[in-house]
Amino acid sequence: MSLRLSPTFRDVLAHRSSPLAGVWVCSGSPLVAEICAGSGMDWLLVDGEHSPLGLESIVAILQASAPYPITPVVRVPSADPVTLKQVLDLGAQNVLVPMISSGDEARAVVEAVRYPPRGRRGVGSALARSARWNRVDDYLANADEHVSLTVQIETASGVDAAAEIAAVDGVDAVFVGPSDLAASMGLLGEQSHPDVTAAVLRTFAAVHAAGTPVGVNAFDPTMAQSYVDAGTDFLAVGADVALLARGSEALAARWAAASGSERASY
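RE: above sequence
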């Protein structure tokens, strides 16, 4: 039996006709992930950094989203090679690594997602969903074709090193995180501050000059549109938990008797 894997995020970016729009999955629920996967969005950002997702829930989310025409990207909590090995082995073809601020850090992550002699990823494909338990022909020899790597720039030093980071062989895309970038610039919570947006646009220019796709996180529709106009290749425009929070608040404001006040105690 021989199985084929899905196109990677790198492949989808290379064949896009417009910016790819994505939604975060932060709830940890495979059911919610499946709802998002069937929404018509282009990509799904499965967050293992700031959300209660462990290995078991990540694999369940990948399985739940697999029947749908959406590309899942798993953000790992850190650049730890062991975590990257585990996430790749459970079948994540596309990984996003946060807090990359130098070319050396980017090169270390590339090594972590590649098998020897090009890297140092541990070999366990016969035991793993990544190779469908050795049902994908020549998985070890062709593993680089089945894995894409996106690195996240979210510090002022990362912006300064954006050109070097984007030029690292094996970095397939760069994702800009304005929230942590604002914090690193002393502007905590001010993602739309002119200095922050200027830094994002400098990153766009540096990454594009290296010939690498660049994306950004932008929940505010006005900011999202401004980044589309500035040439972003992909963006994340919402999250499952945020959609649920704002949607339920809107329902409460419209219908709940105790909306906006202390609920009476009986």
